[in-house]
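Example A, followed by Example B.
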Amino acid sequence: MQKKQIWVLHGPNLNRLGLREPQIYGHTTLDQINQRLTQLGESQGFLVQCHQSNHEGALIDLIHQAPSAPVSGFVINPAAFTHTSVALRDALAAVDLPFIEVHISNVYRREPFRHQSYFSDLAQAVICGFGPRGYELALDHLIAQLQPSS
C-alpha cells in the first residue's frame, strides 16, 4: 500500500531560520524542522516532503502539482505571503486539499499588518506562537484528519 503524502510548504525567508531574528524565530534551522517532520510522518505511516521557496510562483506551481502527486494535504507557513498573496490563496482553494496554516511567532503580538491572513478562513486550523513545535502540532492534526475512522 502506498503511503499518503503530506507536503510542508515554507514561504520566503524561512530558509534563514536559525540565523534570522533569533529573538523572534529561535535558533532551530529549517533543516532541523524538516528532519523532525519527516520522522514524525514516517512514524505514523505518512510520507512527508518539505519544500521552501522565496518565490510566490514556485509555491503556486507546487500546489498545482499536488493533486497528481498525489498529496493528501499541506502544512503551510506562508510567511510574509500570509499578508500579501491572493494568488497563493487562490491556488490552495483551487486544489481543494486540507491544510493547516502555521506561524512560528505569535503574529498577534507583532505589527498590526501581520494580524491579517489571506489563508486562515480556508485552513482547517491555524497554529501560531508555538515556535518550531507548531509545525509538529499541525502535522499531528492533519494526520489525525487523514486517518481512516475506526
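Example B, a separate protein, is given below in the same form.
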Amino acid sequence: MTRIIMHGALGRMGRVITGLAEADQDAVIVAGVDVAPGSAEYPIYHSLAEVKEEADVIIDFSTAKIVDSLLDTAAEKGLPVVLCTTGLSEAQLEKVRETSARIPILKSANMSLGINTLTGLLKDATKVFGGAGFDIEIVERHHNQKLDAPSGTAIMLADAINDAAGGRYEYIYDRSQRREKRDKKELGISAVRGGNIPGTHEIIFAGPDEVIELRHVAYSRSIFGNGALSAAKYLAGRKPGLYDMNDVIAAMI
C-alpha cells in the first residue's frame, strides 16, 4: 500500500485524485496540504512541514509560487515528489534538478498515460517524416477558462519532436506579421480557446500528397489523476533522481 500526501488537496485535481484513491486498493491518501480552508476524508494541513502522518510519497497539484517550499520540505523529510504543477520558472526548474540529487522527483507537464505514450510515437514519427521534409504543426484546443496558451502539453509535445530532430526546429506561435513562405525549420504551435472544449492536441505531419495526424482528447481530469497515482506507486522507494512518465510506462511494459 502506497501512502500519499496530497499537496493541493482541495483543488480540482486534488479532489479528483482523492476520489480515485478511494477506489484504489494499492494507494491511500493519509494527509493533505492546502492553503485554502476546507475539509477532506483525511487531515488537511496548511503546510507540508506541519504534516504528522507517515507517508511514502507526495503528489503535488498546487501552484508554482509554493513549489520552492515544497521541494525544500520534501527534501528535509526525505519524501519523493510527483511534481504535476506547471508554469515553473527557469530558476525553479534548476531547483528541481538540484533537489532530485537528494530525493526522487517525477516531473511531467502532463500526467496522462496516453499523452506520454504519444510522445514516444512522435519521436519515431519525426525521425521518419521530419527527415523526409514533412512540415510539422501542433494545434491544441481547450475550454475558455484555461489561462495559459499554448498549453504546457503542447510545448511538451513540441519538445519531444525537437529532441528527436536534434533541435533543428524553431517554435512559431504567430504568423500574422510574416509575409513569407513557411520555412522548413518552423514548428507551428496554435492555440484555440472556446466553450467547454475538452483538452485536445493534434500533431500534423504534412508532406507532398499525404498528411498524417496524431490526436489525443482528454474527456476527463481522471486521466491525469490515474497517471499521478501510477506515478506515485512507481516513485515510492526509488533512489534519488529525476524521473518522468516514460519511466512509469516502461515499468508497465
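On Example B: DSSP finds seven helices and twelve strands in the chain.
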